[in-house]
């Protein structure tokens, strides 16, 4: 239950720390899973008060574990009456691409736009069973989810310390490979924040309302 970190949590702005790349809400905890990350990014600012950038990351995680199961002690009777264990292999791949741009509007206003697309794939297999084994197709997974996000923002910042931010975010998700089929979703959310920054940014007071219009959503 204790941990000691020897490596930085970020390198060049890319996150290096994950509890687990494979979502635990989907596959549960997977101790000792290996993962690889690759990231590339570009940021640029112009004298006109414009700045923009792009970023891409590839994430990969593989692992295996022993899961509990029940089998029948008498071969010709399909009655599960004996505990046993099976090996499960899991493979996860995720690709993310994002791009952003922002523009100063006068002295106090900034407008921004950001787009991000993420595709995640999860495959789980039970290698001890031959292909076509009864019920194997329902137990194994080969699923995919693609999520798009578009964020439009407007920020106000005054030299006195007062600031305000408005963000409108659009989400769109498609799912494939699920049995039964898993529906996607599409919706907008709007967020409003106001606050005050003290001199030299020693402290900040911020008050905000997220999902201002209480939009319901169902994301995978």
Could you walk me through the main structural features you see in this protein, from its secondary elements to its overall organization?
The chain has 220 residues and is mainly beta. The chain has helices at residues 24-27, 136-139, and strands at 10-11, 14-15, 34-45, 50-71, 82-105, 109-125, 141-157, 162-176, 185-197, 204-209. The strands form 2 sheets. An 8-stranded antiparallel beta sheet has the order 3-4-5-6-7-8-9-10. A two-stranded antiparallel sheet has the order 1-2.
Overview in brief:
The protein has 220 residues and is mainly β.
Helix content: under 10%
Count of extended strands = 10
Which value, in Å, is the CA radius of gyration?
24 Å
Portion of residues in beta strands equals over 45%
* Largest sheet: spatial strand order: 3-4-5-6-7-8-9-10
Given the structure, what is the number of helices? Answer: 2
Biggest β-sheet: count, sense, barrel? Answer: 8 strands, antiparallel
In terms of per-residue confidence, which ranges show pLDDT below 50 for 5 or more consecutive residues? none
The shape is: elongated
Mean pLDDT, all residues: 89
| Structural class by secondary-structure content | mainly beta
Please write the string of helix (H) and strand (E) elements.
EEHEEEEHEEEE
Instruction: Report the span from N to C terminus.
Output: 29 Å
Q: Work out the oligomeric state of the chains in this entry.
A: single chain
């Amino acid at each position: 239950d204790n941990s000691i970190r020897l490596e930085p949590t970020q390198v060049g702005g890319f996150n290096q720390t994950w509890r687990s790349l494979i979502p635990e809400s989907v596959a549960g905890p997977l101790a000792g899973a290996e993962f690889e990350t690759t990231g590339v990014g570009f940021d640029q600012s112009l004298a006109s008060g414009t700045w923009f950038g792009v970023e891409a990351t590839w994430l990969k995680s593989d692992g295996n574990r022993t899961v509990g199961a029940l089998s029948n002690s008498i071969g010709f009777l399909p009655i599960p009456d004996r505990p046993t264990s099976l090996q499960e292999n899991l493979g996860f791949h995720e690709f993310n691409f994002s791009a952003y741009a922002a523009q100063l509007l006068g002295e106090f206003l900034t407008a921004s736009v950001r787009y991000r697309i993420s595709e995640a794939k999860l495959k789980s297999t039970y290698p001890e069973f031959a292909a076509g084994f009864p019920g194997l197709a329902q137990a194994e997974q080969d699923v995919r989810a693609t999520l798009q996000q578009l964020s439009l923002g407007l920020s106000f910042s005054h030299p006195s310390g007062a600031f305000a931010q408005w963000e409108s975010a659009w989400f769109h998700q498609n799912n494939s490979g699920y049995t039964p089929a898993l529906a996607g979703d599409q919706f907008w959310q709007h967020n409003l924040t106001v606050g005050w920054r003290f001199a030299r940014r020693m402290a900040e007071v911020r008050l905000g309302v997220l999902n201002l219009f209480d939009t319901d959503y169902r994301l995978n």
